[in-house]
Specification:
- The chain is mostly helical.
- The protein contains 19 helices and 6 strands.
- The strands form 2 sheets. A 3-stranded antiparallel sheet has the order 1-2-3.
- A hairpin with a 2-residue loop joins strand 1 and strand 2.
- Helix 10 runs antiparallel to helix 15.
- The protein is globular and about 75 Å long.
- The mean pLDDT is 92.
- The structure holds carboxymethyl coenzyme *A (CMC).
Length: 441
């Protein structure tokens, strides 16, 4: 659809929205303003609700709560649409790179060639971590999960690169370059430490993804041949993860950032939230599930039946917002096909994934609950084909999501209503009672 038509459709939807919403509580009517987004999404602004009525809203899981206004990412869960700064993810996947997309997400516009050059040079110049950080890694057990290491070392950047409370634009740009670039170096270092190999330093002559693959897989005794197909696959993976509006880890970043905490600690909180199996940790869980099915020899259909009977979750399926196929999963599935066609690449797990998808998409259980493949269903297969160990998958998600976390953190800092996030609750504990001395209990 042309951008003119899209704008017209949005304006029409906006025009149809009422100006206000009336709520009747205990016989009295209250009027609340309605806020309409660019694409016609409507919200009732209840910021004066408690002051005027004494009531709060209760929305566990926050499925119906808009926590902010944002200009970064648009997502239509019914249509399966995702756009960064207005640009459809499919167009970025076809024409852009992770570095260019990171700039777009961060600064709001596609960079001009010179701007991209400066941004890339800045990422390159920030890629080396403080040498003393190596001691940090040495203090951590070699068998630690790379996500445990990542949260620790990212938070520790606040000790190596202290930031003041008042940040000017230059400070922000420096933090952005540091975090987008260094998370990749830190990820590769933690992998090298975990397998007992010497750390490989970043090289200024390599581009973002090449540099990462080189730090991950080169060694003093083994040359690493960079494969353009793998470079493209990882670039695409990172690009598709760059932002996803108010998901669990991003909401965590905004929440922690709202107290004006140090940005490195704030991002580390986001990484911790990402780790869970219901969020970014799902990419590891999907591969483990596919490999379990493969090893057990059980048929895919029997596995699905058992899963439903035990009320277990099909990992990589379902989404809080998408009630149709996740557009990122569509792109990754296509890419899996291309990647696995390459000589030497084969993934029996891919065939299992395709069969699982086919069965689930015909099954009443999944259909009635609108459960479709999400981004994590196919992403692990790509990472596996690229040679990444399974426990690094969520780390790669974190590298990809960094521009989004930082853009959301920056947007929040500059918002007019920059309030500390402090939800309320409905207390359901014991009513007032009094302390009983120890010998009278
Ligand atoms: N397999 C089987 N049943 C499911 C699944 C699944 N993957 N997801 C949801 N359901 C069922 C759930 O049991 C419930 O059924 P019932 O109504 O009978 O109780 C119904 O669908 C609604 O589930 P919900 O938990 O209320 O849905 P939600 O919006 O709170 O959860 C989700 C979203 C992503 C946490 C969930 O779909 C899930 O656990 N999926 C598997 C984990 C996964 O793949 N996570 C990655 C998400 S995408 C990447 C990211 O951004 O993190």
């Amino acid at each position: 659809m042309s951008s003119k038509k899209v704008r017209k459709r949005s304006a029409e939807r906006g025009a149809r929205a009422p100006k206000g919403a009336t709520m009747r509580i205990e016989g009295k009517e209250y009027e609340f303003p309605v806020v309409v987004g660019t694409e016609g999404e409507k919200a009732i602004d209840i910021s004066s609700l408690r002051a005027s009525t004494g009531y709060i809203t209760l929305d566990e899981g926050l499925s119906n709560t808009g926590s902010c206004e944002s200009a970064i990412t648009f997502l239509d869960g019914q249509r399966g649409e995702l756009r960064y700064r207005g640009i459809p993810i499919e167009e970025l996947a076809a024409h852009s790179t992770f570095t260019e997309t990171a700039y777009l997400v961060m600064y709001g516009e596609l960079p001009k060639p010179r701007e991209l050059e400066i941004f890339s040079a800045r990422l390159n110049a920030s890629s080396l971590i403080h040498e003393d950080m190596r001691h940090f890694f040495m203090g951590l057990p070699g068998h630690a999960h790379p996500m445990a290491i990542l949260t620790t070392v990212v938070a520790s950047l606040s000790a190596f690169y202290p930031v003041s409370d008042e940040l000017c634009k230059d400070d922000e740009d420096r933090i952005v370059a540091n975090l987008i670039s260094q998370i990749r170096t830190l990820a590769a270092c933690s992998y090298k430490m975990s397998i007992g190999e010497p750390v490989v330093y970043p090289s200024y002559k390599r581009k973002f993804v090449e540099n990462f693959l080189y730090m991950m897989f080169a060694s003093p005794v083994r040359d690493y041949q960079l494969d353009p197909v793998i470079i493209r696959a990882i670039d695409l993976f990172l690009m598709l993860h760059a932002d996803h509006e108010q998901n669990c880890s991003t909401a965590t970043v905004r929440m922690a950032g709202s107290s004006h905490a140090n940005v490195y600690a704030v991002v580390s909180a986001g990484i911790s939230a990402l780790w869970g199996r219901l969020h970014g940790g799902a990419n590891q869980a999907v591969i483990e599930m596919l490999e379990r099915i493969q090893a057990s020899g059980i048929s895919v259909a029997a596995y699905v039946e058992r899963l439903k009977a035990n009320k277990e979750r099909l990992m990589g399926f379902g989404h809080r917002v998408y009630k149709t196929y996740d557009p990122r999963a569509k792109i990754l599935r296509e890419h899996c096909h291309n990647l696995l066609k390459k000589p030497g690449m084969s993934a029996p797990a891919f065939d299992i994934a395709l069969e699982l998808e086919q069965i689930a998409l015909r099954d009443e259980y999944f259909l009635s609950r609108n459960l479709y493949p999400n981004v994590d269903f196919y992403s692990g297969l790509i990472l596996k084909a690229a040679g990444f160990p399974v426990n690094m998958f969520t780390v790669l998600f974190a590298i990809g999501r960094m521009p989004g976390w930082l853009a959301q953190w920056r947007e929040m800092r500059h918002a007019d209503k920059n309030k500390i996030v402090r939800p309320r609750q409905i207390y359901k504990g014991p009513p007032l009672r009094h302390f009983v001395p120890k010998d009278a209990r």
